[in-house]
Amino acid sequence: MERNSPRGPGPVHVPLGHIVANEKWRGSQLTREMQGRVKIMFEEGLASADFYLSSRSCILYITEADLVAGHDYRKRLVHVRNSGHLQGIIIAEKTHISEQYFPAVQKFTVLDLGMVLLPVANQLEASNLIIQLVQEQTREPNRNPFLGKKRRVLSELALVQTVQQIPGVGKVKAPLLLQKFPTIQQLSNASVQDLEEVVGHVVAQQIHTFFTKPRRQQPCS
Length: 221
What we know:
alpha/beta, disordered N terminus, 14% strand, Rossmann fold, 221 residues
């Protein structure tokens, strides 16, 4: 591993097959798991992103502690979303401690910002996902892994996982719902009557409540 000079919030040069990581991740389990599988360059001053796969592709990592602490992570997501030159994917730790906060994160990331959100159980699982993305970029060096086919695949996966988290839905009903309501916007605007045709009255009411109830404010530490 090698360390580059600090860099500002502008585009970051990432050699093919490498990852540029925020200095704060040096020595973490996440980067240790990636050692030997990909070349990592640590840099300071990477603004909002945690990892860069290319000059236009970045990863923002939300830890269990971030989710429990409150809404501070949202500023980073919005900054990348509004940057104009970055395509970001959000990886978030969904554990038994943070899962109660996860529905709000999903709604904010996928529905409000239109970004890709992928949950992971721990940093080991996250490292495998990041390695997979690097490998995709290496196989197709002229393509951004968050654009075209790859972006559609990730978006579809994130969408299915988001719908699965709605109370009463799960892995069986999520695909059925997405056949009739292919976007979060359509699903959130569906009436109880429309939803009943797919999942029955009880689950339809749960879905409607999920999207219409006021968002609970999370405490900040």
